[in-house]
């Protein structure tokens, strides 16, 4: 097969050869920059797909979507270059800080422990609103929904309970000192 490799192959490939990895990585970086038309450092799955097509790559939509979902770790429907690199997102770092017993869910107790300025009732309201899967708890996806909603809406629009949530700047834990952690 001559010419440039297929996009899906490029993205999914686990080549053992370093130079091949490098060239695939460069191609991915190039593609990301093309996809980021408005230059805000974020691309949607649609941006990526269009960029692949316009670059003449074999673009398998399903593969791109699968790869995208896997990489979109903060679940906001957009990919940053940091996410492509696998650098922990703010949501992941915040979730780790909340999830004290590391069971993959945030309980009311854990919520209250981190957000000491919130009342019992406020935490209940937040858990009820976002934690639908398991009553009184919040899983990672639900936590992301809450965080992403906070980020998107203006503070004025938020209910008083949400307004009080303090996840982006946790008070405890060494890991919260640095914004990014390379795994
Ligand atoms: Ca963009
Ligand atoms: Ca994202
Ligand atoms: Ca937990």
Give me a quick take on this structure.
The protein has 183 residues and is mainly alpha-helical. Helix content is 51%, strand content 5%.
Question: Key features?
Answer:
183 residues, Recoverin, domain 1, 4 strands, 51% helix, disordered C terminus, binds calcium ion
Write the layout of secondary structure elements.
Blueprint: H1 7-12, H2 18-35, E1 42-43, H3 45-54, H4 61-71, E2 79-80, H5 81-85, H6 90-98, E3 105-107, H7 108-114, H8 120-130, E4 137-139, H9 140-152, H10 160-163
Antiparallel strand pairs: 1-2, 3-4
The protein binds calcium ion (3 copies).
Tally of individual helices: 10
State the share of residues found in helices, binned by percent: 40-55%
* Class by alpha and beta content: mainly alpha
Q: Strands of the largest sheet, in order across it?
A: 1-2
Strand content: 5-15%
The number of domains is 2
Largest sheet: 2 strands, antiparallel
Rough outline: elongated
* CATH homologous group name of the largest domain: EF-hand
What is the name of the CATH class of the largest domain? Answer: Mainly Alpha
Task: Report what the structure shows.
With 183 residues, the protein is mainly α. It folds into two domains: 7-85, Recoverin, domain 1, CATH 1.10.238; 90-170, Orthogonal Bundle (Recoverin, domain 1). It has ten helices and four strands. The chain has helices spanning 7-12, 18-35, 45-54, 61-71, 81-85, 90-98, 108-114, 120-130, 140-152, 160-163, and strands spanning 42-43, 79-80, 105-107, 137-139. The strands form two sheets. The protein has a two-stranded antiparallel sheet. A two-stranded antiparallel ribbon has the order 3-4. The longest helix has 18 residues, at 18-35. The protein is elongated, with a radius of gyration of 19 Å. The two termini are 36 Å apart. Mean pLDDT is 82; it is low at 154-164 and 167-183. The chain binds calcium ion (3 copies).
């Amino acid at each position: 097969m001559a010419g440039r490799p297929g996009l899906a192959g490029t993205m999914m490939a686990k080549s053992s050869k370093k130079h091949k990895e490098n060239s695939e990585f460069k191609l991915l970086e190039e593609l990301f920059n093309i996809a980021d038309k408005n230059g805000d450092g974020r691309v949607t799955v649609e941006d990526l797909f269009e960029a692949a097509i316009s670059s003449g790559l074999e673009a398998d939509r399903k593969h791109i979507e699968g790869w995208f979902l896997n990489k979109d770790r903060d679940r906001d429907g957009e990919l940053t270059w940091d996410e492509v690199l696998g650098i922990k997102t703010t949501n992941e770092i915040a979730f780790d800080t909340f999830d004290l017993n590391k069971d993959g869910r945030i309980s009311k107790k854990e919520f209250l422990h981190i957000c000491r300025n919130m009342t019992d009732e406020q935490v209940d309201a937040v858990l009820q609103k976002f934690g639908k899967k398991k009553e009184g708890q919040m899983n990672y996806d639900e936590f992301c929904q809450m965080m992403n909603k906070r980020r998107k809406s203006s503070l004025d629009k938020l209910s008083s309970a949400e307004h009080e949530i303090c996840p982006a700047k946790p008070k405890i834990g060494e890991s919260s000192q640095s914004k990014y952690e390379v795994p």
